[in-house]
C-alpha cells in the first residue's frame, strides 16, 4: 500500500501539506507578523485616542469582509494583514497612552511575544502532568501573586480569561463550601454593594443562585459599602430563615475606584461565618504599589480575591486571576476525573506542580502563565511597582488640576474621592436646573474633550438626590500614559469648557 497522493494544489512546488508551511514560509510569516506588530506599536503615541465606532465603523467593517473560500486568499498573508490593518482603526485604541476610559488594557509588547511563543509551542497545560515545566512556571507566578496579596502557602490560584470567570469560579467555590454538592440553594443569600461590577450578579445566576437572592447593600457618600446596612440585612435574612453565604466587597469599583471597608467586612463575615470574596479586578494590582498598598488594607483577610492582570499588570486582554486563601476549597469545588485521563496516573508524580484543571472550570486552556512570567522575568517586579506608583501620581495630578480650576472659578465638581487611579468630575448643577438638562451639558462636555482625539474619557451615572447624574471619569492605568498626556487632558478640558 502506498501513501495517498497529495492534494492537487497550485502550491505543490512548495509543499504537499500547506498547513505546515516550509521553513522559508514560516520565517516569512513570522517576519511579516512582526513587522505588522512593530508598526502598530511604533505608531501608538501618535494614533488618535479613539478609533472609528458606530455606523461608519460598521459600514467600513462590512466593506473589508471577505468570504472564506476553498482557495487561499489572493495575495496570501500580506493581503490578510492588509485587511487587518483596515480593521484595526475600527475600535477603541485601548492600549494607547490617551485611553483614559473604562479600565485601560495596556498590552505589554513582551506579553505579545509570549503569546507567539506559547501558540507556536502549543503545549497542553490544563494538567501539569502533561507539561510540568510550563506548569511550574505558571505556578511560580501564582504563588508570587498570592504572597503579594498576603496569602500563605495553603493558598491556590488559577489564571482565567478575565474577572468575570474568576468571579464565577469564586462564587461556585463559596457555594460549594456552604451547600456542598446537593444543598438547597433556594434560601442561599449573597450580598454586594450597589456599585458592584455586573459580573457578580451574572455569576451568581450562572452558579444557580436565584437572582432575587442577591442583596444590593446601600453605599456611603464615597460609594463604599455601608457596614451597618450589610449587618442589618444579614440579621434580617437570618431571622426570615434564609442562609447568608457570601459577601462580595470591592477593592476598587469600576465606576469610581471606591474601596469598601475590607477589614470591617472581614470581621463581620468571620462573626457570621460567611464567605468573603473581594472583587479586585481593577484595583487589586495596587497591592504591588508602595504608595497605594495601604489603601487596600484588609484584602489579605478575604477568603478569595479576583484580580485582572490584563488591567493592573498591563497584559493583553484575556488574563484574569482568582486566588483562594485555603486552596482545598477551590479544589473541592472544581476537581474532576475521567477514564481517558488514566494514563497520567501511571507516571511518577512526586513534586508535581498543581494542575490548573483541578482548581478551575477549564480542562483545555491556553498557556496564560507565560504572558505574565516572561515580562516579569525580563523587566523585573520593580518596574511594575514603579509603573503603578506612576499611575497613582498621575491621577493625583489630574485631581489637583481639577481643584485648581474649581478654585479659579470653573463650574466643576469632584463628586467622589480619588481612591486609586480613577478621578470623577462633572459640571456643577445650576440652581433649579432639571436633571435632564444637567446631564445633557455633561454629555456635551465629555464629547468636547474626546473630539480632540488626544485623550478618550468615558462616563458613568452616579446617584444624586433626584436620580442619576452623568459624570465623566478618568482612569489612569496604561503603562504608556505619562504626565504629558494628563496635561493634554486638562488642556482639552479647558478648551471644552470654553466652547460650552
Brief summary of the model shown:
The chain folds into 2 domains: 114-341 and 351-379, Aspartate Aminotransferase, domain 2 (3-Layer(aba) Sandwich), CATH 3.40.640; 383-499, Aspartate Aminotransferase, domain 1, CATH 3.90.1150.
- Can you write the helix and strand succession as a string? HHHHHEHEHEHEHEEHEHHHEEHEEH
Principal-axis shape: globular
Strand content: 5-15%
CATH arch. level architecture of the largest domain: 3-Layer(aba) Sandwich
Largest sheet: number of strands, sense, barrel closure: 7 strands, mixed
List keywords for this structure.
500 residues; alpha/beta; Aspartate Aminotransferase, domain 2; Aspartate Aminotransferase, domain 1; 2 domains; seven-stranded mixed beta sheet; four-stranded antiparallel beta sheet; 15 helices; 11 strands; globular; disordered N terminus
What is the topological layout?
Layout: H1 23-42, H2 54-64, H3 76-87, H4 109-121, H5 132-148, E1 156-160, H6 163-179, E2 188-193, H7 198-206, E3 214-217, H8 227-239, E4 243-250, H9 262-272, E5 275-279, E6 304-307, H10 309-312, E7 320-324, H11 327-334, H12 369-379, H13 381-407, E8 412-413, E9 422-427, H14 435-450, E10 458-464, E11 467-475, H15 483-499
Helix pairs in contact: 1-3, 4-12, 5-12, 6-7, 6-11, 13-15, 14-15
Amino acid at each position: 500500500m502506498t501513501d495517498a497522493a497529495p492534494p492537487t494544489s497550485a502550491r505543490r512546488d512548495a509543499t504537499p501539506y500547506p498547513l505546515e508551511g516550509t521553513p522559508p514560509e514560516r520565517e516569512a510569516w513570522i517576519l511579516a507578523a512582526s513587522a505588522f506588530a512593530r508598526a502598530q506599536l511604533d505608531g501608538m503615541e501618535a494614533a488618535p485616542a479613539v478609533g472609528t465606532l458606530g455606523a461608519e465603523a460598521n459600514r467600513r467593517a462590512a466593506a473589508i469582509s471577505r468570504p472564506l473560500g476553498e482557495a487561499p486568499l489572493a495575495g496570501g498573508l500580506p493581503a490578510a494583514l492588509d485587511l487587518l490593518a483596515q480593521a484595526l482603526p475600527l475600535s477603541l485604541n485601548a492600549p494607547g497612552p490617551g485611553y483614559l476610559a473604562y479600565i485601560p488594557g495596556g498590552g505589554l509588547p513582551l506579553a505579545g511575544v509570549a503569546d507567539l511563543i506559547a501558540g507556536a509551542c502549543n503545549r497542553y497545560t490544563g494538567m501539569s502532568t502533561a507539561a510540568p515545566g510550563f506548569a511550574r512556571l505558571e505556578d511560580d507566578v501564582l504563588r508570587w501573586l498570592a504572597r503579594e496579596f498576603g496569602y500563605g502557602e495553603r493558598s491556590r490560584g488559577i489564571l482565567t480569561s478575565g474577572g468575570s470567570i474568576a468571579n464565577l469560579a469564586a462564587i461556585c467555590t463559596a457555594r460549594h463550601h456552604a451547600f456542598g454538592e446537593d444543598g438547597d440553594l433556594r434560601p442561599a443569600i449573597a450580598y454586594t454593594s450597589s456599585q458592584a461590577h455586573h459580573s457578580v450578579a451574572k455569576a451568581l445566576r450562572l452558579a444557580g443562585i436565584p437572582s432575587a437572592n442577591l442583596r444590593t447593600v446601600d453605599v456611603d457618600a464615597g460609594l463604599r459599602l455601608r457596614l451597618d446596612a450589610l449587618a442589618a440585612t444579614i440579621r434580617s435574612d437570618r431571622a426570615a430563615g434564609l442562609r447568608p453565604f457570601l459577601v462580595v466587597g470591592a477593592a476598587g469599583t469600576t465606576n469610581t475606584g471606591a474601596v469598601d471597608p475590607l477589614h470591617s467586612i472581614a470581621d463581620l463575615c468571620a462573626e457570621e461565618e460567611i464567605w468573603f470574596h473581594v472583587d479586585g479586578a481593577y484595583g487589586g494590582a495596587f497591592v504591588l504599589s508602595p504608595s497605594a498598598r495601604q489603601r487596600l488594607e484588609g484584602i489579605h483577610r478575604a477568603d478569595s480575591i479576583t484580580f485582572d492582570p490584563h488591567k493592573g499588570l498591563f497584559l493583553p486582554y484575556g488574563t484574569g486571576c482568582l486566588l483562594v486563601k485555603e486552596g482545598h476549597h477551590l479544589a473541592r469545588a472544581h476537581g474532576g476525573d475521567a477514564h481517558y485521563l488514566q494514563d497520567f496516573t501511571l507516571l511518577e508524580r512526586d513534586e508535581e506542580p498543581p494542575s490548573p484543571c483541578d482548581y478551575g472550570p477549564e480542562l483545555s486552556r491556553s498557556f496564560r502563565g507565560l504572558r505574565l512570567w516572561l515580562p516579569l522575568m525580563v523587566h523585573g517586579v520593580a518596574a511594575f511597582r514603579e509603573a503603578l506608583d506612576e499611575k497613582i501620581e498621575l491621577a493625583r495630578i489630574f485631581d489637583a488640576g481639577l481643584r485648581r480650576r474649581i478654585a479659579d472659578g470653573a463650574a466643576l465638581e469632584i463628586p467622589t474621592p480619588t481612591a486609586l487611579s480613577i478621578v470623577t468630575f462633572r459640571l456643577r448643577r445650576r440652581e433649579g436646573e432639571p436633571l435632564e438638562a444637567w446631564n445633557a451639558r455633561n454629555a456635551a462636555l465629555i464629547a468636547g474633550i474626546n473630539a480632540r482625539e488626544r485623550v478618550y474619557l468615558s462616563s458613568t451615572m452616579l446617584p444624586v438626590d433626584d436620580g442619576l447624574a452623568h459624570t465623566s471619569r478618568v482612569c489612569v492605568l496604561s503603562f504608556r500614559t505619562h504626565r504629558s498626556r494628563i496635561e493634554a487632558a486638562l488642556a482639552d478640558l479647558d478648551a471644552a469648557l470654553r466652547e460650552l
